[in-house]
Specification:
With about 120 residues, the protein is mainly α. It is built from four helices and no strands. Helix 2 (about 25-65) packs across helix 3 (about 65-75) and helix 2 crosses helix 4.
Length: about 120
């Protein structure tokens, strides 16, 4: 009788170990899920950075008139009434000023969040 009990307990232990290591919800599946989480985090990092830039731009557009004026000048070619506009054919317009401004705002926002 004791012999059969030992065999049954050994078989039960083997089944439980199999489920732990190889079964559904086991350690193998856990490692696969962790790898997937790392991959998705890596994919989301550029999106988080873009969202931070856009959030900084929204804050700047809500609070400052300079950003609105710069956006209107670069996107739709706005000219103030006291200015003269000269169009020179073949000259490319540089639009990186807005991007530099947005990057500076993101840095300021991250520094403020760290404090």
């Amino acid at each position: 009788m004791l012999k059969w009990l030992a065999i049954a307990l050994t078989l039960l232990l083997a089944v439980l170990q199999y489920r732990l290591w190889l079964g559904d919800g086991g350690l193998r599946e856990l490692s696969q899920i962790r790898e997937r989480v790392e991959t998705l985090d890596a994919e989301n990092e550029p999106l988080r950075a873009r969202n931070a830039r856009l959030a900084a731009e929204v804050v700047d557009l809500k609070t400052g008139l300079d950003a609105i004026e710069e956006r209107a000048r670069s996107d739709i070619g706005m000219v103030r009434r006291d200015e003269r506009f000269y169009w020179v054919p073949g000259v490319a317009v540089q639009t990186d000023a807005l991007e530099r401004h947005a990057a500076a705002l993101v840095e300021e926002a991250s520094e403020a969040a760290d404090e």
